Amino acid sequence: MLSRRTIIKGAGAALAAGSAMAANDPGDRLAARLGSAVKGTVLFPRDPGFAAEHTGYNTVVRHAPKAVVVPADTGDIRAAVRVAALLGLPVAVQATGHGISAAADGGILINTRLLSSVRIDPAKRIAKVAAGTRMRTLVQAAAAHGLATINGSSLDVGAVGYTLGGGLGPFGRKYGYAADHVRAIDLVTPDGRPLRLSPKRHTDLFWAVRGGKSNFGVVTELEIDLVKLATVYGGALFFFGDAAQRVVRAYPAWAARLPEEMTTTLAFMRLPKSPSVPPPLQDRVAVRLTAAFLGRDQEGRQLLAPMLAAGPEINTMGTLPYEKIGTISNDPPVAPLPVHERTGLLKTLDAAVMERLLALAGPSVKLPYGVIELRQLGGALARPAAVPNAVGHRDAAGLLFIANPAPAPQAEAVRKLQQGLMDGLKPHLTGGMAANFMSSADLGPDQVRAAYTPADYKRLTRLKRVHDPRNLFRVNHNIRPA
């Protein structure tokens, strides 16, 4: 079987021939212009490797772009955007494909995966992160200096996309959103110009991109503050049967008393028989409690004592070197698959919410494989950023996230089930959403508007009119020009 590397090399050879042909074909303006402007790889639907370069992690959304550009450097990104602007084609940006929402049909998809690098300044506690860098690379680079970034639960996602959507992770209640720690942004604008954004330069775009994601151009590099952190006390507790129900009911009062140094999640999990799933979890309904504590281990154990008393069947809590932070949620590195997702923000994490969840998704309810997760907010997540950004809804108490893998024949049934869960929880939802957790189910203008406060959304649409009036960057949760 051909490796991915072999396929890409073959695609490069095909590109050379294809571009030469395009140059002689006056009808193929896109191929001719991209072929002459881009040093990296350009692939068209006829080329080997085309599908491999545009297929992301979540295959619910399937792209059909006119071309895929795998840039060799930021100059290639500028060139690809200029060609798209000249021909009036939409631009999509993809690093790992975890955050795919809209199909890049008829446009140019820029896959930044080769632009993966991290430069750490340990004295200033700053990381400079290139466009295609996975979070795991950033975490490992920071950990080598006893430092940490505000990463999420999964280390396989793209660091840039995660951060621009807000960035909610296991240190959130202590440090806030990852977007709150961005110092500067290198952006390619819709007309192909490079801009440096910061609190003192192009401040309107600096505000908008941190929360507005890919609506204003292609981010080629982020400069991010790091925090001093070598170890974390964290892990997961798994409960089954009666113990699971006891923990769910005890969670609200317990979580409300936690200091900001501890951030928790509570999830209802139904996992299949699979080599990637530990045998004790296969074909069972579990309630998983995760916790990350930034303090002494003994204090962390004392804080967890009420949950430990409920009798977890599996306990992975312990002291972790920061570079192992991904083992708290332990998201498996699986191949691309179709995952249907829904999200919302919760007004409270109180007893009424827990009773409703037990009724809708508790151990006695038959549901398809998947996860229904609550993420605890509050603390620093409730406070405004030192340098304001477009990440809003900071008054929410919790985040709801539903994910179910399902092949196409089961998709409609899963979507209806998820809508039933959302409807059942509607009295407890704020009506807002977090940008990073929105999916292909949230593409409508009303859903996109729900990701921001009314004032912020109005400001974003006005800035979109100024900086991208033709809405070139619309293959996303699109903020339309006012």
Q: Can you walk me through this structure?
A:
The chain is α+β, with helices and mostly antiparallel strands and 482 residues long. The strands form 4 sheets. Strands 12, 13, 14, 15, 16, 17, 18 and 19 form an 8-stranded antiparallel beta sheet that branches. Strand 5 and strand 6 form a beta hairpin. It is globular, with a radius of gyration of 22 Å. The N and C termini lie far apart (50 Å).
Number of strands: 19
Low-pLDDT segments, ≥5 res: 1-27
Mean pLDDT: 92
Tally the helices.
Answer: 14
Give the end-to-end Cα distance, rounded to a whole number of Å: 50 Å
Largest sheet: 8 strands, antiparallel
Strand content: 15-25%
How large, in whole angstroms, is the Cα Rg?
A: 22 Å
> What is the percent of helical residues?
25-40%
Structural class: alpha+beta
Spatial shape: globular
Short description:
The chain has 482 residues and is of the alpha+beta class. It has helices at 4-23, 29-37, 50-54, 74-87, 135-143, 159-164, 172-175, 203-212, 241-256, 297-308, 351-361, 408-425, 445-449, 454-467; strands at residues 41-43, 67-70, 91-94, 108-111, 118-121, 126-130, 147-148, 182-188, 194-197, 218-225, 227-228, 231-239, 262-270, 285-293, 314-315, 318-321, 339-346, 370-376, 398-405. It is 32% helix and 21% strand.
